[in-house]
């Protein structure tokens, strides 16, 4: 057990998976000697060699397309998309091939592929280095999509993803990488994909969220604790499959719910969560389901005040929760 | 298959032609729906090239995949049943025409996003190399043969695939079936380099071959496969001509009936038949007998498809994840 940041926890998971199974290899842009732009793969090239830690061409379609083929023929590739914003040249490969392979082949072929993608903003990455991409992929049956936000969960869920016979999009919030620290067991352990986590127990209002917003929600909850408002924070961790039971149980408990996500509001992943609550939790609700999310503008802007305007922040979250509690 | 049996190849080509003619008939009768792309006129490419593969080799192809499936030895009955959307089909009715596949034959299927499957094929080849070099599986000596059309060579994934295959010296044969049209767009309109093999020449050796001559096709494919097995990627551009429309519903505004008739002299089946007759390996009577036998087989194939049950509705919800979510 050691205190690690999110990035170090992911590195440890990669190392353990590669040590356990020679079929596991890493492919991505600058993942080799450089150890990745965020240094997530630091040390692995030296330890496992260039055949297992592969510096790919700057062509995401190659990274994903070749990994799908290799996964179909028995490998366990871990493909890194350097920034989630760069995933779109590989969009077709993920949607048309990886997600459908089992379905189109009567279970003959599967694609045990993990796609790691650093996403999210608040780091002045601007137009091509800050976006959230989950809604595009959670829409597609055949894929699993996870977004752990603590070092403990990140290691556990990455190991679970690597063991998983289905393609998993593993989203790593960039701002969490060095900011979020926590105790991580040294050994190999997993958290099942598809289970939410109650990040904070509460009784007055529920926040359903994931990613960096989990931490902002907890911060907002601490602010409101002094005002005698007791906030429950549910960290979904896994977006597909979704733990509907934990969501509805929280709604039953608090009767008021805020769905919080960093992506653009319109058509975002939280819209589906809100629809599920409206349909399955209606009789437990004492207020309309609220959403707080990123602005509906083409991309996260660069300048600090504009970026803060885009993002839900702890104070915006607290304001929204105050209004909701007083409804 | 080292020594080519031209008579057997002739029979397979006639089988493919007949399969396609029956598909057209059944499409006209609305028993086959959706989009149907026939391989009529290109039979020598699949039969010649796939005959150069060994059992441990791999085949990945494009959406016009009926001929490749049959040339690889897939049974026609489940293929026709798939076209009929029946539970006995290769994809249990989920896939249809463009997505035949059979793991037992290392036939990784037809793919309908033009050019995308080149990267999948490259990944399978990468896996072969990885198994040999990292996992120490010395018996991994398979070659991947990847088919695509001339229309697939303008998109970025084509260049991505040939570049990386060359970089890693992967055991793969890229086989372009140049039938002179990207759907309805002629070669000269869709590409600046009409000698397609030259597009790959900075990356790997390659050549243009007569894809309507099954003997030449086999000989050059054997050379290509041997090169891929021992040295690295190889590129074949097989010149051929699609005698039917892009799909069964194509009005073919881009060429005239006279254009097509002028190309019938290059029909690979007619060419091979004449060659066999000239070499005293076949008589007109024997050829008619082959036609009759194939026709009878195809009647049984269609009957099998017709009599097969539709998939149960629950089939829609199967095989999405390894375990239901």
What does this protein look like?
The complex is a heterodimer of chains A (327) and B (325). Chain A has 327 residues and is an alpha/beta fold. In chain A, 38% of the residues lie in helices and 20% in strands. In chain A, the strands form 3 sheets. Chain A has a 7-stranded mixed β-sheet, with helices on both faces. Chain A has a 5-stranded mixed β-sheet with strand order 9-11-10-13-14, with helices on both faces. In chain A, strands 1-8 form a two-stranded antiparallel sheet. The model of chain A has no long low-confidence stretch (mean pLDDT 97). Chain B is 43% helix and 12% strand. Chain B has helices at 6-28, 43-50, 66-71, 76-83, 117-133, 156-167, 187-190, 197-200, 214-230, 257-262, 268-278, 284-307, and strands at residues 58-62, 107-111, 144-149, 172-178, 181-182, 185-186, 206-210, 234-239. In chain B, β7, α9 (214-230) and β8 form a beta-alpha-beta unit. In chain B, α1 (6-28) packs across α2 (43-50) and α1 (6-28) packs across α12. The longest helix of chain B has 24 residues, at 284-307. The interface between A and B is large, with 44 and 44 residues.
Q: What is this structure's SSE topology?
A:
The complex is a heterodimer of chains A (327) and B (325).
Chain A: E1 2-5, H1 6-20, E2 24-28, H2 44-48, E3 53-55, H3 60-72, E4 76-80, H4 91-98, H5 101-104, E5 114-119, H6 134-138, E6 144-146, H7 151-163, E7 168-173, H8 176-179, E8 181-184, E9 197-200, E10 205-209, H9 212-225, E11 231-235, E12 238-240, H10 244-254, E13 257-264, H11 269-280, E14 290-294, H12 304-310, H13 314-325
Parallel strand pairs in A: 2-3, 2-4, 4-5, 5-7, 6-7, 10-11, 10-13, 13-14
Antiparallel strand pairs in A: 1-8, 6-12, 9-11
Helix pairs in contact in A: 1-7, 3-4, 9-13
Chain B: H1 6-28, H2 43-50, E1 58-62, H3 66-71, H4 76-83, E2 107-111, H5 117-133, E3 144-149, H6 156-167, E4 172-178, E5 181-182, E6 185-186, H7 187-190, H8 197-200, E7 206-210, H9 214-230, E8 234-239, H10 257-262, H11 268-278, H12 284-307
Parallel strand pairs in B: 1-2, 1-3, 3-4, 4-8, 7-8
Antiparallel strand pairs in B: 5-6
Helix pairs in contact in B: 1-2, 1-11, 1-12, 2-9, 4-12, 5-6
